[in-house]
Amino acid sequence: MTMVAPAPPSSPLGRLRWALADGWTVTRRDIIHWIRQPVALIVNLAFSVMLVLVFGYLFGGAMSVPGGGNYREFLLPGMLVLMMFFSLESTIMAITEDKSKGVTDRFRSMPMSPSAVVLGRATADMLMSVITLVALVACGLAVDWKINRGIGLALAAFGLMLLLRFALLWLGIYLGLMLPNPESVAAVQILVWPLGFLTSVYAPPETMPNWLGTIAEWNPLSSTVSAVRELFGNPGIGGDSWIAQHSILMAVLWPVLITVVFFPLAVRRYQRLSR
């Protein structure tokens, strides 16, 4: 008996519903993995909390914030943004593992929406990012971090962090599709960590040598860090450079630019798999 796959919906609304339904199915696959194998999720959250405690207490006593202020209040917004950046590694690893195991090809051979795999991956990673933010916010509140400018601006700050994470998703999906196997992710990690630390997360750029401070200020992460500090009302706001004085604007423009560049590259690379 021959099974005939149903024809794809012909209307735009039907195709959208098809994509959303199949994308949610792929997302549920990842959620089930978290429930059945929670070790990876727990380790990821524990690592994030550990970094906050290590830098906040182990090194925090030796750090001073220009203009004064509690170093842990200076640190927490940066750590929230940094964890959004480090989540790039999990996106790359998940995409590379599915591709190397043939899971992506099996999805592509099924009568499902062509965008479902990418949409499902994006939804699962954004959900994981929200969970990470909740855990870090709870940790921050426990170590005397404060939101000083009201819930409205705080929600805007969280929105900027998730916007950055959304942009980095497409970079991660593209790199995951480009890398030949999971072992090659280590080569990307070598670059991820220096890019994450060469920012204003741990120290203000004005305390660095001029050339290094300029690089740190123009790192896209630094714009989001500065914008989030401003919206939360935490210390470490300011700077004489143009980009430091327009951090909220750049915290929007950088993610938009990253998305514009890597979204079409990721989609095109996915469409060319197994050709």
TrEMBL record:
ABC transmembrane type-2 domain: residues covered: 39-273
Origin superkingdom: Bacteria
Q: Which GO terms describe its biological process?
A: response to antibiotic
Single Gene Ontology MF annotation: ABC-type transporter activity
Do you know which InterPro entries this protein is assigned to?
A: ABC2_TM, ABC2_TM_bact-type, ABC_2_transport, Nod_factor_ABC_transporter
Pfam family membership, one: ABC2_membrane
Cross-referenced PANTHER family, in alphabetical order? NODULATION PROTEIN J (PTHR43229:SF2)
Per its record, how is this protein called by name? Transport permease protein
